[in-house]
Fold:
Amino acid sequence: MDIIRKAEEKLRRLSADPEIRKQYELRAKALSDERSRLEDAREEGMEIGVEKGLEKGILSVIRGLLDKGMPLTEAAKLTPYSIEELDRKLKESQE
Structure:
């Protein structure tokens, strides 16, 4: 109990000092801002990962269709890409 009382007393003294309180509030805001930036970056990273995964899956399926003899012009109709985009993406993914 003595430790808790000492901690409470120290907290009262520190919170009574306006400069220390200001430093504490600035530090708390900086930590909150950093947490927010990290969360935003994590979400953006996840979105990018999902997009890349979907593209990789689409290209894999299209490669299979092309291997079975489907023309690129027909395969492109099954994707969100133009013929030129699909051709470029297929070539890039093989490098």
Remarks:
- The CA atoms of residues 76 and 84 lie 9 Å apart.
- The mean pLDDT is 90.
- The first helix runs from residue 2 to 16.
- The chain has one domain: 2-94.
